[in-house]
Design a protein that fits this description.
By secondary structure, this protein is of the alpha+beta class. It has one domain (4-88): 3-Layer(aba) Sandwich (Aminopeptidase). It is 27% helix and 33% strand. The chain contains 2 helices and 5 strands, in the order E-E-E-E-H-E-H. The chain has helices at 52-67, 76-84, and strands spanning 4-7, 11-17, 23-30, 35-42, 70-73. A 5-stranded mixed beta sheet has the order 1-2-3-4-5. The longest helix is centred in the middle third of the chain and has 16 residues, at 52-67. It starts with a strand and ends in a 9-residue tail after the last helix.
Length: 93
């Protein structure tokens, strides 16, 4: 599963297309050069139970850490995962 990124000046999304053509995505908004807000994670039924949302979120955390950015997890899924992963505290705002 190859995670791709699409970005504009103010928004973006991480996504991948499953073998059946279903698309899982995590969308975000940019707030300045150093912070993003995760506002939605969507995993279609065909990809549920396979860790798709977590894989997207792990990639966002890794990219934020590499770029020195922080994350505000407004999306309920992302917020719950940040609580389950204390090792991500360095990128949480």
């Amino acid at each position: 599963m190859e995670i791709q990124i699409e970005e504009t000046d103010s928004k973006g999304r991480y996504f991948f297309v499953g073998p059946n053509g279903a698309v899982a995505e995590l969308t975000f908004s940019k707030t300045g050069a150093g912070m993003i807000i995760i506002d939605h994670t969507g995993v279609p039924e065909a990809l549920r139970g396979q860790g798709a949302g977590l894989k997207l979120l792990e990639r966002v955390v890794s990219d934020a850490r590499s770029a020195g950015k922080t994350i505000i997890p407004l999306c309920p899924f992302a917020a719950a995962q940040f609580k389950r992963h204390p090792g991500w505290a360095d990128v949480r705002r």
